Amino acid sequence: MKPLYFDTAATTAVAPEVLARMVELLGGEGAYANPSSAAHLPGQAAAAVVALARVEIAAELGCEADEVVFTSGATEANNLALRGVALAHAAQGRHLVTSVIEHKSVLACCAALQREGYEVTYLSPNSAGWVEPDAVARALRPDTLLVSLQYTNNETGVMQPIAEVADLAVQAGVLLHVDAAQAAGKFPIDLQKIPIDLLSLSAHKFHGPKGVGCLVVRNRRQLRLQPLMHGGGQEFGLRPGTLATHQIVGLSAALSLAAARRAADLAHVGELKRRFLQQLGECLPTQVHGELARSSPYIVNFSIAGIISDALINQLRSDLAIASSSACSSGAVEPSYVLRAMGIEGEPLYGAVRLSFSRDHSLAEVSAAVERIGAAVSRMKELEISEDK
Ligand code: PMP
């Protein structure tokens, strides 16, 4: 029996429609030429495919086509945004504002910038899991270049107050970068309505392929960014390297599909999460982490009284693929820095697990997941009793 996969916040399967579009491009009959080979027709055909994908992505996000910079994913997009702004604008200031609950690709990039002489203010979330806009306002200084805040937290699913922070950033004249890896495709993002300067996303979080994403750079002609790499000048000089046509088309097809299905998918996963919590709560004493009313229906983070997450995940190994919030660093288990920042300690901290849903899950699978968790907890309790004897 294959474990039931409930770890879509880590990655999703490529949607069949997306896969078909990608495969079409790869073979000898596809537009496989180098999109930068402008001198010949096959190159122009490949460039047209990329151009169309760029237009489709831009239409979905409410930006201009030439504001979409393809990258290998959100990690690279986050690095390009933060480092790119910091290095290009060092003469104006050397201060950045972010939060302690960001993804490691933001935190580690900020830490590297600190080693290079930049100052970073790390904001803590409240106990509900979101960063208060007032805290952002208080952190701004005359030498602040950029605020970086995630759209949706990858561990708790809590949505951050991006619209309010965007208004604050505009008033203060600082740039705003948003890591939308857990939000893009799933929620409508309209850059015409919310003044976000830089937005990162990764295709594999919404049924596209791994290894491709983009950084949207609004007002690209005014906003200066220093590229991370040097090469052939592709992507407006911001990200060199031969464009991966099939990956780019995979990203655009997955985003378009997600947009077309968005309302139905949101309603579906909302129901999956509601039923999951209801059924689990009926059989086990559970505590949910992060404010439910503000959290993504795609993610649920919870702990079960008396249960340690790693033991549970191990017990469920062949039944259910879920994530714990802890990380293994140098052999020791480090509990989640996100939950810890929310003031969660002790049993709930060490017991926290994350389930994440997708459009492909059924209600029957959700019930099966609850049953499997219930059975695993019973086995663990029995083991404890026999060990005590
Ligand atoms: N930001 C967030 C919030 C994420 O969840 C992830 C993926 N775990 C990333 C950034 C990085 O995405 P990728 O690994 O595709 O580069």
UniProtKB/TrEMBL annotation:
The keyword Iron applies. Keywords: Iron, Iron-sulfur, Metal-binding, Nitrogen fixation, Pyridoxal phosphate, Transferase. It catalyses: (sulfur carrier)-H + L-cysteine = (sulfur carrier)-SH + L-alanine. Its EC number is 2.8.1.7. Its cofactor is pyridoxal 5'-phosphate. Gene3D superfamilies: Aspartate Aminotransferase, domain 1, Type I PLP-dependent aspartate aminotransferase-like (Major domain). Coiled coil: none annotated. One of its GO terms (molecular function) is cysteine desulfurase activity. The keyword Iron applies. It is an enzyme of class 2 (transferase). Residues 5-367 form the Aminotransferase class V domain. Catalyzes the removal of elemental sulfur atoms from cysteine to produce alanine. Seems to participate in the biosynthesis of the nitrogenase metalloclusters by providing the inorganic sulfur required for the Fe-S core formation. Belongs to the class-V pyridoxal-phosphate-dependent aminotransferase family. NifS/IscS subfamily. This is cysteine desulfurase. It comes from Candidatus Methylumidiphilus alinenensis. The lineage of its organism: Bacteria, Pseudomonadati, Pseudomonadota, Gammaproteobacteria, Methylococcales.
